[in-house]
Amino acid sequence: MIRRILYYIFIEDYVAKIVCFVIGCGLWFYVEVARVTQTSLNIPVEYIKKPANLYLKQGQARFVKITVRGRDEFLKFSTTGIKAEVNLANARGGDANYPLIFDARQLPERVEVASKPDTLTVGLEAGASKVVPVKVVTSGNPDAAFKLQKAGANPQQIEIDGPEAVVSSLQALDTEAVDIEGASKTITRKINLRIPDQVSTDKVRSVNVRIDFVPKTYSEEQQFDQISVRVQNLDAALNAALSDQTVQVQVQGESAAVKKLKPSDIYIYVNAEDTRYNSRTGSILPYANESGVPVKGRILNGSRKVQILSITPDRVNIRFSVKPEYAKKDP
């Protein structure tokens, strides 16, 4: 009985059975192997666990190419959310190769990684910080009868942190453009800053701006250099040393009045009324050194026809010291 069954399976009509077997193998090969293809994906790179005192150099790879394989119908999938990682936990400054981590579980079933880079070259540099002015950017033109007088921001300066090369190249932080098309009255609003990649502003993302306009009758402008800065309301017991003893002043006004203006007609000053000498303790209060003190000014003659547009620098540092005759002497 068993012999007849085996004969029927393997011997009887064996040619037809071999042909069927070959056809079946061919179909299986076509379905499982021949239809398997490869495709390349550009996936984003995320740099993780970077030391706080190091920053990525400019031009670092944002994407990496990997090759995946699978049957055609399985390769049609969204790459949203798929990423590779570079762990920088033990990184140091300079250029070095770091392992590229890719979790294949991000791929759909029946799709596998065919090839990927094992490492990625990453450049890191030390950080730096500095204080830069805020530059108000405008777009459009004011009313035909007016012209822009000045544009200022509050705060006027912001401390930035970031890669040393980026920070050193930044001379100012621009705002988003403020539309002044057809304007004739003062514009005040809150505007976002244009902050470059990798630059931190300690959560300051926007500033308050004020843009003033004047009639075009104020058509003449003139610049005065080396205008002395005076100290008002200085305590009689103190001396004051300024980081900048002279400034540059830009004025605007009616043509005849501006042409008559002399440097002696421009009064530039800082106010020291909040700093006092305590003779009992021998201390200067609140501080012996004041940073970022506003520089102010006014026109002494022809002030109704001429006004100050800008003072550069508009802030100075003051170092106070006690006059010898007032200094507290040890008993």
Task: Characterize this entry briefly.
Strand 19 (276-278) and strand 20 form a beta hairpin. With 331 residues, the chain is mainly beta. The chain is built from four helices and 24 strands.
SSE map:
Blueprint: H1 2-10, H2 14-34, E1 36-48, E2 54-56, E3 63-71, E4 84-87, E5 94-101, E6 112-115, E7 119-135, E8 138-139, E9 146-154, E10 157-163, H3 164-169, E11 173-174, E12 178-179, E13 187-192, E14 206-215, E15 220-232, E16 238-242, E17 246-253, H4 255-260, E18 266-271, E19 276-278, E20 283-285, E21 289-294, E22 296-299, E23 306-312, E24 315-322
Parallel strand pairs: 1-4, 7-11, 8-12, 15-18
Antiparallel strand pairs: 1-3, 2-7, 3-6, 4-5, 5-7, 7-10, 9-14, 13-14, 15-17, 16-24, 17-23, 18-22, 19-20, 21-24
Protein name: YbbR family protein
Describe this structure in words.
With 331 residues, the chain is mainly β. Among the domains are: 92 residues, RNA Polymerase Alpha Subunit, Chain A, domain 2 (Beta Complex), CATH 2.170.120; 115 residues, RNA Polymerase Alpha Subunit, Chain A, domain 2 (Beta Complex), CATH 2.170.120. Helix content is 13%, strand content 48%. It is built from four helices and 24 strands. The strands form six sheets. Strands 1, 2, 3, 4, 5, 6, 7, 10 and 11 form a nine-stranded mixed β-sheet that branches. It has a five-stranded mixed β-sheet with strand order 22-18-15-17-23. Strand 19 and strand 20 form a beta hairpin. It is elongated, with a radius of gyration of 37 Å. It starts with a helix and ends in a 9-residue tail after the last strand. This is YbbR family protein. InterPro entries: c-di-AMP_regulator, YbbR.
